[in-house]
Amino acid sequence: MYLKNIELYGFKSFANKIQLTFNNGITGIVGPNGSGKSNVADAVRWVLGEQSAKQLRGSKMEDVIFAGTENRRQLGYSSVSITIDNSDKKLPIDFSEVTVARRVYRSGESEYSINGSNCRLKDVQELFFDTGIGKEGYSIIGQGQIDKILSSKPEDRRDLFDEAAGIVKYKKRKSVAEKKLLEEKQNLNRVSDILSEIE
Ligand code: ATP
């Protein structure tokens, strides 16, 4: 599994549609300060479902949309799509190539798709659970993150080990099931209150 391609339109400094193609192996992106190298990494984070504007080095989600320059008007939406080679089937989906896309409008409305079919943020997150690629994964190590990992609380470091061990999806499912159980218990309590009132 590797990142084959990324397409950006209106994302941060990329006002025009651009496409970057990567080969299997190591690729370096070089360029002068402020030319948009980190914006490419932000785009990968974003398309994978990042919800924190701070993680994307902004103050609100609208900051990912091209804000305009002296000569060019701001854009109304931003879109990013990444294509991943999945011939080793590491992603739990029956396609040898997987394209994940996200689009956001200034109104805040957000859309996701997997291989061209609209989907929910949850579907994107579940696709990447335990692969190391998702939002909580370790495939994108941002500036200053190594220090954070070394000095953070043991519980935070544990999240990293959980992802590497492949147990995140079970932990998420467990917490959803526990929440449902709690709701059912509350319903049962309510029913027994009503029954005792009738009796
Ligand atoms: P460095 O080498 O200094 O880390 P870099 O190549 O990684 O720089 P980035 O941080 O990716 O550069 O890009 C910063 C540039 O992106 C700045 O010029 C900033 O004005 C521009 N930028 C960020 N958000 C937007 C936006 N919403 N609209 C237009 N330009 C933006």
Protein topology:
Elements: E1 2-9, E2 18-21, H1 37-47, E3 77-85, E4 97-105, E5 110-114, E6 117-119, H2 121-128, H3 145-151, H4 154-165, H5 168-198
Antiparallel strand pairs: 1-2, 1-3, 3-4, 4-5, 5-6
Roughly what percent helix?
25-40%
Tally of strands: 6
Order of helices and strands: EEHEEEEHHHH
Q: Kindly, what is the distance between the CA atoms of the first and last residues, rounded to a whole number of angstroms?
A: 63 Å
CATH class of the domain at 2-134: Alpha Beta
Assembly annotation: single chain
Ligand inventory = adenosine-5'-triphosphate
CATH architecture of the domain at 2-134: 3-Layer(aba) Sandwich
Class of secondary structure makeup: alpha+beta
Number of helices: 5
Which descriptor suits the 3D outline? Answer: globular
The average pLDDT is: 90
Estimate the strand proportion. 15-25%
Q: What is the CA-based Rg, rounded?
A: 21 Å
- Physical arrangement of strands within the biggest beta sheet: 2-1-3-4-5-6
- Poorly predicted parts: none
Q: Could you give me the name of the CATH homologous superfamily of the domain at 2-134?
A: P-loop containing nucleotide triphosphate hydrolases
Say what the CATH topology of the domain at 2-134 is.
Answer: Rossmann fold
Family: Belongs to the SMC family.
Binding site for ATP: 32-39
Subcellular location: Cytoplasm
Protein name: Chromosome partition protein Smc
